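Morning run. Coffee first, then this:
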Amino acid sequence: MLPGFQPQVGRVVRVGDRTPVRVRQTEHVSISYDLTPPAGGSCPRIGLLGTGPWAHRTHAPALAAHQGSEFAGVWGRRPEAAAELAEQYGVKVYEDPDALFADCDVAAFALPPDVQAPLAVRAAAAGCHLLLDKPVATTVGQARAVVDAADAAGVASVVFLTLRFAEPAAGWVAEQAARSGWFTAAAHWLGAVHGPDGPPSAYAGSPWRKAKGGLWDVGPHALSVLIPVLGDVTAVTAARGPSDVVQLALRHTSGAASTATLSLAAPRAAAGVGLELRGAEGVFALPDWGDVPGAYGRAVDALLESARTGVPDPRDAAFGARLTEILAEAEARLEGGAA
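And here it is:
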């Protein structure tokens, strides 16, 4: 860690007290880092891992604009792409991720999930707080390894789930979570990344999105809203539709039922995002949102606050691991022919 950021010994709050019970957590005493700079001191240094369209459009501009931290450098699997992105923002290019971890207080990830997970374990072991992308991983084992690594190192973590940080959607989720008497909910996230018509998407060349489809790419978004409002998922049913469409039917701890229709291959005229909640207090629809780089900046704020206080954020790696558990169960049902 950089000079000026003093380690503080404190008890880490049990994540299991407020996140799904199947994400194993152990209460322990650990080191957490207060990232509040002293007067005249330097800001927390954040290193970015990843150089794809998401990094160019969201992560890098948000990190460069963030007032409470320093965008320190970039590492990528393609050195020429990392050099180009680093030059654009006037930051250091790293040839080795471990060198980035040694120089930085926070590791921000814009990588495919199963590349992200093992690197996040290494980053945590090096003492870096983790700003993760969704999904944390596409296997339960890898996702839990990230949680265990962060827990063992006493570092903070936040998963950038767009609807939990972009306004007014994030505020709407908090308002609905305070209500009770929910009966049912219906979500859809129909992207046209691999759609049959229209111009090619900037994300169409992503191998992991092509392989895993809408279930894994946009499923975390839907679940990130349904769970805080309706409660943890207690039962999952999954069925396939046309192209890569997956339909989920879920039961929640509140007793409410929900559905989610997910795809990355919708025709452009059919693409869109929506979520509707119905209950004793009425019908409530998810509002539109914008400014995704601004939302990413709020995720940085949340991570730094968690690192400063030692209080886990509700959108941390443990929550991300729970999303992976649910999606893996849905995938297993699809592969097994269950519906």
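Confidence is low (pLDDT under 50) at residues 1-34, 36-40. Good start to the day.
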